[in-house]
Amino acid sequence: MNIMQLTVFREVMETGSISQAARQLGRTQPAISLAIKNLEKALDLTLFERRGRRLIPSQEAQYLFVEAEGILDRMNIVSKTMKSLQSAEAGSLNIAAMPGPSTFIFPKFVSENVETHTNFQTTITSRSSQQIRELASTQSIDFGFADFHPPAGKEQRYSAEIVRANCFCAVPSDHHLAKKDIVSIADLDNEPIGTLHPDHPFPRRLAFLFQQENATFKSNIAGQFFLPLIPFISLGHCCSVVDPLTVVTERELNISKSKVVFIPFDAPIRYEYATLTPSYRPSSKHATQVKEAWMSSLFEMLEDIDANPTVHGTSFKIA
């Protein structure tokens, strides 16, 4: 039993005629008769009683007709859905971003670049960078945006498009460094520094850079991501070395009410982001378009603040 036989059978049931079914399907009468005969042979059942030119369906045919309609209607829906996915007209988009970007700039971008009609479902998840790597590795998202961390020898089933950009020194607007056009690590010697949690590699990297400059790294406030540090900086509790997207977000939201100043470093401190794509999850046309648009938007945002973004390891496959 195959799809063509079921299609012919349904048409014969609906028209009650071999000749009419042949006209509807654009086939010859012998071809329709043969399809019915082969279907009866495959099922080892008599589906129609022939009375002259009339075909009288058996009880088994009535049951098969209901089942055949369900199967063929479902096949038709699947076919239309796949065509819609190819043309980006329907389907779903499941994406994730790390805290910070997921607060504003990532949802803002998505809202401007996703389908808005009822046939499309968009899900945005905020997760830690480690969780996003796990989601990408288990093929659970279309793509994710996270801090880039090199793999630790464990097999990862995703590719990473890595973007590097310059960090900024964030200081209170009344701080003595606020009037400088450029700062150095040495300028932050013994200053209270707000940074990320100790389990993040960035504070360790900062401590190393301070050590190289014979400067004291004094961390007094730590957060899961940079944005929660902005109120502390604005009130003069600390300075910080922040990633460039925090600068973009603060300029959009003005959390500090203009009480935080961002200054570039004389020797750039680079921050690494990664857009992660599962290696084995089929990507719809729309998901691909949105990811490509995100990479373009990311570059534009980073260029607008003179963070000098560069791409490294495009489609870098970790597997």
Note down, in words, how this protein is organized.
The chain is an alpha/beta fold and 319 residues long. It has three domains: 84 residues, Arc Repressor Mutant, subunit A (Orthogonal Bundle); 122 residues, D-Maltodextrin-Binding Protein, domain 2, CATH 3.40.190; 100 residues, D-Maltodextrin-Binding Protein, domain 2, CATH 3.40.190.10. The chain is built from ten helices and 13 strands. The strands form three sheets. Strands 4-3-5-12-6-13 form a six-stranded mixed beta sheet, sandwiched between helices. The longest helix has 28 residues. 33% of the residues are buried.
What is the H-and-E element order?
HHHEEHEHEHEEEEHEHEHEEHE
- Taking pLDDT < 50 over at least 5 consecutive residues as the criterion, the unreliable ranges are 314-319
The helix/strand class is: alpha/beta
- Relative helix content: 40-55%
The whole-angstrom Rg is: 31 Å
Biggest sheet descriptor: 6 strands, mixed
Number of helices: 10
Shape: rod-shaped
CATH class of the largest domain: Alpha Beta
Number of strands: 13
CATH architecture title of the largest domain:
3-Layer(aba) Sandwich
- For this structure, the CATH topology of the largest domain is D-Maltodextrin-Binding Protein, domain 2
Q: Report the portion of residues in β strands.
A: 15-25%
